[in-house]
Amino acid sequence: GNNEGIAKRLNQAIEICEKEDVSYLLTMDQDSSFNNNDLKVYKNYVKNEIKHESISMFGIRYYTIDDETKNQTIYDKILITSGSIINLKVAKSINGFDENLFIDGVDTEFCLKSFKNGFKTVFYQQIYLRHNLGDEKNITIPFLKKRTRKIHNPLRLYYIVRNYLYLRKQYRNLHSKINLPDLINELKNCLFYGGQKIEYLRAILMAIKDANRSQLGKLNNKYAFKLNNRI
Predict the structure, then answer these.
(1) In terms of C-beta density within 10 A (0-12 exposed, 13-18 middle, 19 or more buried), how is residue 142 classed?
(2) What's this model's pTM, rounded to 2 decimal places?
């Protein structure tokens, strides 16, 4: 009956799988799906991967790319939870997902922790997942054509900023894996095109403050209540 955050639920799923003697877990978002026979192809890629014991997570593409690079397999890339397959033996060995984060950056932290402990991730560009990151909003810029931007509500932006700063502090030797341009793009889209500028600025300032004092977990104060936005 409570929203306890994605990390806690993922850890509960890992515990259930362990009791059921399951070795790998596919995690999906409610808006994600596979095309045609892609899940079967994906499973075959995972089965044929060499040195499974060194891989913590397998992932797939959720955006369009050039045909020239579609057949590439990339190692040690930061993956998103949706469409990923978790090696449960490795997940248990590195203590699963960080529940301090609640939501946003949970998958990034798992990948960074994997790298720190000598494990790898595998990204199959050959397989496409239908998936949306955030709500889309059509905007028109003067003298330019209409464009689509990803917009988050202020509460969600709070978690994005706070957890990004937390990860920068926790994984100082892996900053190259934590994408600053992505964060800047999130901030720009919300502030320029999301409306509610005051609420976005308040969310950003509180995120910075909480990250600096290591105030993590679920935001349970009057500020979160006032925002009155679901995540």
Answers:
(1) exposed
(2) 0.87
